[in-house]
Amino acid sequence: MRVAPLPADQWDDAVDNALSGLMPAERRNPQAAGNLVATLVRHPKLTRAFLRFNFHLLFGSTLTDRLRELAVLRVALLAKCEYEWEHHVGMGRDAGLSDDDIGGIERGEATDELDRAVLSAVDELHRDDVVSDATWTALSAHLKEQQLMDLIFTIGCYSALAMAINSFGVEPDSNLDPER
C-alpha cells in the first residue's frame, strides 16, 4: 500500500466538507465510506472534484445502469483492478447483469450487439485511446449522442480511477480493518 486510508482520528472538517452534499452524513466516516474514499480524502479538494464527476456518471448519466456496469467491469478486468472489479460485480448484478454476462465480460464476449460494441469500445480505448469507426457505428445504432459521450467518459473515468487504485495500492473493502 503506497497511500494508506486516512485514519479515523484525522477525518476533519476539510474531509467532511469534501464529502458533504455528495454522501450522506452517516457514510462520511472511514468504515462506511470504504477504503477508496478513505484513501482519496487525503486530498480533500481533489476528492470533491473527482466524486462530483464520478457521481454524474453513476447517478446522472444517460446510460442505463446495466450498460455502465458492463463497461466499468470490462475496464476493471483490463486494468487488473481487484478493488474496482469486486465493488462493481455486485453493482452489475443489481443493474441486471447475469453471471453469464459477467463471464462474457471476462472473456470479452457478448451475445447482444450493443453489449459487444460496448466491450469493443472499452478494449479499443484501453489499447488505442480511440474508438474505431466500426465500433462507433455499432454503438450509434443503439445510443444517442449524449449516451455515446457518457459512455466514453465512463470508460475514461473508471480507467483513471483503476490507475489510481492500483498505483495507490487501495485494498478491496473485504480487507477493511474494523479498527480503522
Automatic annotation (TrEMBL):
Entry coiled-coil feature ranges: none
GO MF: peroxiredoxin activity
Span of domain Carboxymuconolactone decarboxylase-like: 44-122
Listed Pfam families: CMD
InterPro entries, alphabetized: AhpD-like, CMD-like
Organism: Mycolicibacterium aurum
Protein name: Carboxymuconolactone decarboxylase
Database matches in PANTHER family: 4-CARBOXYMUCONOLACTONE DECARBOXYLASE FAMILY PROTEIN (AFU_ORTHOLOGUE AFUA_6G11590), CARBOXYMUCONOLACTONE DECARBOXYLASE-LIKE DOMAIN-CONTAINING PROTEIN
